[in-house]
Specification:
The complex is a heterodimer.
Chain A lengths: L2 H11 L8 H13 L1 H18 L9 H6 L10 H9 L10 H20 L10 H12 L10
Helix pairs in contact in A: 1-3, 2-3
Chain B lengths: L2 H9 L3 H23 L2 H17 L11 H19 L1 H18 L5 H18 L2 H12 L4 H8 L3 H31 L1
Helix pairs in contact in B: 1-2, 2-3, 2-4, 3-4, 4-8, 5-6, 6-9, 7-8, 7-9, 8-9
Classes of the chains: A mainly alpha, B mainly alpha.
Chain lengths: 149, 189
C-alpha cells in the first residue's frame, strides 16, 4: 500500500475504513495505524466531514403542500394503453361502438388486400377456350339427352 | 407498500400513492436541489417539477434498473444541470453578492463568528466547484448514495465519478488548510 493509493481510496470512499470494499479494509487499517501521513489525511477527511455536516439547509415550510396539491396533468401512457383507451373508452357511449367494429374488420380488409395483390404462386390452370365453350353450351339450354336415342 | 406497488398505483392514477412517495422523498430531493442551486425559490421550483415528472412518467420507471430514490435524484440532477446551464449568470451574481458579505464580516474578532465565516467561505468554495464535482460530493456525502448509484444518477462511469469526487475533496481540503493557516495567524496577532 502506498500513500497515493491510500489517499485515492480516502477520496473515493470517505474516512470510515469499515465501509470500504472488503479486500482493502485490513491492509488499509494497518497502513493507517503505521503511517503518520495516512493518519493526518484521515484527520483532515474527518474535519472536512464535520464542516460539510455543518452546512445548513433552510426549512421549506410550504413546499410539501405545494407539491402535494399541485395540479397533476394527464399521465403519459404507452402506445398500447393509448390504443386501448381509444378502442374502449371509459365513458360507455354507444356512439363509439364503430371503433371496435372497425378494428374487428381490419383483419378482413387485410385479407382482401393481400388476396387481391398477391397470388402466392398459386396458378389456376384454366383453359379459357374450353371454359367459354362449356359456358355457351350450358347457356344454349339444349337437351343433349335427345341425341342419345 | 413497496416502491414497486406504489409506482404501479401511481401508474393507475392513484393520487394517494403519489402523496406517499412525496412524503418519503421530498426532504432528500429538496436538499439535493438546494445544495446544487443554492437558493430557495429555484429549489422549490425544481422539486415541484421533479414530482410532476414522476407523476407523468411513472410508467417509465424500471425497478430492475434503479431504485426509486436513484431515479428521482436523476430527474432532479438533470433539471438542476439544465437550470444551471440556462441561468449561470444569475448564480454567479448571487455568489458574488455573498462574497461581498463575507468581506464585511471579516472585521470581527469573535472566534465563533470567525468559524462561521470560515464555514461560509468553505460553502462558497463548494458552490464554486464545477457542477460535476459538486454533484458527486453532494450525492456521495449527503445523500448517502454508493459510488455506483451516484454515477448512475449523473450518467457517468464510476471512474469518472471517483475522479470528480477526489478532485472536489482535494480542493476543499486545500481551502480548509488555507483557512486553518489564516486562523493560526489571527490568533498570533
Amino acid at each position: 500500500m502506498t500513500f497515493d493509493k491510500f489517499s485515492d481510496l480516502v477520496d473515493f470512499y470517505g474516512a470510515d475504513i469499515s465501509v470500504w470494499p472488503n479486500g482493502l479494509r485490513e491492509e488499509c487499517s494497518t497502513f493507517a495505524i503505521d503511517s503518520t501521513a495516512a493518519k493526518n489525511l484521515l484527520n483532515q477527511e474527518h474535519q472536512l466531514n464535520e464542516v460539510l455536516k455543518s452546512q445548513q439547509i433552510p426549512e421549506f415550510s410550504d413546499l410539501l403542500t405545494k407539491v402535494l396539491y399541485q395540479e397533476l396533468p394527464q399521465q403519459q401512457q404507452s402506445f398500447l394503453d393509448q390504443f386501448l383507451g381509444w378502442l374502449i373508452p371509459q365513458q360507455n357511449s354507444h356512439l363509439l361502438w364503430w371503433r371496435p367494429a372497425l378494428v374487428g374488420c381490419l383483419p378482413l380488409l387485410f385479407g382482401i388486400i393481400v388476396g387481391n395483390f398477391y397470388s402466392f404462386s398459386i396458378r389456376a390452370e384454366v383453359n379459357e377456350l374450353d371454359y367459354w365453350e362449356d359456358e355457351l353450351t350450358l347457356l344454349s339450354l339444349n337437351d343433349y339427352t335427345e341425341n342419345s336415342y | 407498500m413497496t416502491d414497486e406497488e406504489l409506482m404501479l398505483a401511481v401508474c393507475d392514477g392513484d393520487q394517494s400513492a403519489y402523496q406517499v412517495i412525496v412524503h418519503q422523498h421530498l426532504k432528500s430531493i429538496s436538499h439535493y436541489a438546494f445544495r446544487m442551486l443554492g437558493n430557495q425559490k429555484d429549489t422549490e421550483d425544481i422539486t415541484q417539477e421533479t414530482f410532476l415528472r414522476l407523476w407523468i412518467n411513472a410508467a417509465k420507471w424500471q425497478s430492475e434498473k434503479a431504485k426509486l430514490s436513484t431515479w428521482l435524484h436523476r430527474i432532479t440532477h438533470n433539471l438542476c444541470i439544465d437550470y444551471l446551464k440556462k441561468h449561470r449568470w444569475v448564480v454567479t451574481q448571487e455568489s458574488f453578492d455573498e462574497t461581498k458579505d463575507d468581506h464585511k464580516s471579516n472585521g470581527y474578532d469573535n472566534e465563533e463568528i470567525t468559524d462561521k465565516s470560515n464555514i461560509k467561505k468553505l460553502n462558497e468554495q463548494i458552490r464554486n466547484l464545477p457542477e460535476n464535482q459538486r454533484s458527486a460530493l453532494m450525492l456521495c456525502h449527503y445523500q448517502n448514495f454508493s459510488n455506483k448509484e451516484a454515477a448512475h444518477i449523473m450518467n457517468i462511469s464510476i471512474k469518472a465519478l471517483e475522479s470528480a469526487l477526489a478532485r472536489s475533496k482535494r480542493t476543499l481540503r486545500q481551502a480548509m488548510a488555507i483557512t486553518d493557516a489564516s486562523k493560526i495567524e489571527d490568533t498570533k496577532d
